[in-house]
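Data deposition worksheet. Section B asks for the primary sequence of the deposited chain exactly as it was used as input, without tags or linkers unless they were present during the calculation. Section C holds the resulting structure in token form. Section D is free text for depositor observations; keep each observation to a single sentence. Incomplete worksheets are returned to the depositor.
Section A, Depositor: J.P.
Section B:
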Amino acid sequence: MTAPQSRRILLAEDDARAREISALVLQTEGYSVSMASNGTEALEMLILDPAVEMLVSDINMPGGIDGIELARRVQQTLAPLRIILLSAYPQDSFTDFPDNVAFLSKPYDRRALLNAVGTSFRMPEDDPIN
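Section C:
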């Protein structure tokens, strides 16, 4: 297993406080974390930085690209990437939830976030969820 220090995560979250706290939790565990405040910014960052291995994104974000659309675009245009989507709404409330994407319910605590990220990194790259 690869050490967290060599793992790169992009965190896309429009709530600045939630973004900063989640990034701090991940960085404290040794992950390298970049942050985006909306889906458009996240997509641009992913295109420019192919070394990112995981996208952790809120579903409900302003700016034209929500987390589900972001996940779909990433799956269609970029190399395999682990994706975790976050929402306060239940996963089954999203009829268009993409395949091979993990879900983490908000609010989540430190342990739940680290467990979701760790579990996703332990899955094979071509099937990060199932």
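Section D:
The longest strand covers residues 82-87.
The two ends are 18 Å apart (CA to CA).
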